[in-house]
Amino acid sequence: MSRIKGLYAVTPDVTDTPALLAQVEAALLGGAALLQYRNKLASTGLREQQACAIQKLCRQYGVPLIINDHVHLALEIGAEGVHLGGTDGEIAEARRRLGAHKIIGASCYDSLDLALQAEVQGADYVAFGACFSSGTKPLAVRASLTLFKEAKRQVGLPAVAIGGITAENAVLAIDAGADAIAVIGALWNAPDVAQSARQLSQLFTQVTTS
Questions:
Q1: Which of 42, 108, 150, 152 is most buried, by CB atoms within 10 Å?
Q2: Contact 173, 128 (CB under 8 A)
Q3: Phi and psi dihedrals of 30, rounded to 5?
Q4: Catalytic residue list contains 5
Q5: pLDDT at residue 55, rounded to an integer
Q6: Catalytic member of 3, 5, 97, 137
Q7: Does residue 130 have a cis bond before it (omega within 30 degrees)?
Q8: Can 59 be counted among the known catalytic residues?
């Protein structure tokens, strides 16, 4: 889908909702093209509260909100889609529940075969990673950047790079063929989230024009 392009901001595990919303708005101001709500520390009630508030911000800025794992939550708040990991449920079932027009992303780790399966099952984009050493998931399997070139040839879906993405190494993933970069630590841990988002977003323009 054409909407899968640029900086894909993935929220950190923050239970302080006002602080999280301030960070999210800064990322949106900085040019995040997509935003995924992912909070592994939140209770069910807090998850619903945060997702609803973030959805309002995303609609204000015209940015699609993707919910990590929870199809029912995406349905409940009218989010633009879901992202499913390897143990988060079947893509085909999520498609049945969400309908034809919602975005479904799939974590494919270091596997082109998983990406091919995701395409058949109805995913809209695939994600490969960890592309670099990841502070969020230090034990994550490493994914070769050559996967993006192979995905262009064989899969036919936008491919997202995730895992250890920084302003310094993101260009390597983009040059390799990544349509989007999913960023957590390098974005939210920056002293100026909006500036960090702006810098990461501008890498796509720089690569395109270079």
A1: 108
A2: no
A3: -80, -10
A4: no
A5: 98
A6: 137
A7: yes
A8: no
Q: How far apart are CA 3 and CA 38, in angstroms?
A: 19
Query: 142, 167, 147: which is closest to 159 by C-alpha?
Result: 147
Structure tokens at 187: 């974005």
**Euclidean distance between CA atoms 127 and 158, whole angstroms:** 9
Average pLDDT, the chain: 94
Planar angle of CA 176, 12, 33, nearest 5 degrees: 50
From the CB of residue 90, how many other CB atoms can be counted at a distance below 10 Å?
12
- Assess whether 38 carries a catalytic annotation: yes
Model confidence at 1, pLDDT cuts 50, 70, 90, reads very low
> Of the residues 38, 47, 95, 102, which is catalytic?
38
Among the listed residues 47, 102, 107, 196, the single catalytic one is: 107
H or E stretch covering 24: helix 17-29
Q: Cα separation of 63 and 3, whole Å?
A: 9
Q: Is the CB of residue 132 less than 8 Å from the CB of residue 163?
A: yes
Which residues, other chains included, contact 139 with Cβ-Cβ below 8 Å and sequence gap of 6+?
none
| Cα–Cα distance measured from residue 153 to residue 94, given in angstroms and rounded to the nearest whole number | 26
CA distance 34 to 179: 12
Structure tokens at 207: 């690569």
Q: Which domains does the chain have, with CATH numbers?
A: 6-209 (3.20.20.70)
Give me the helices (H) in 36-104, please: 44-61, 71-77, 91-98
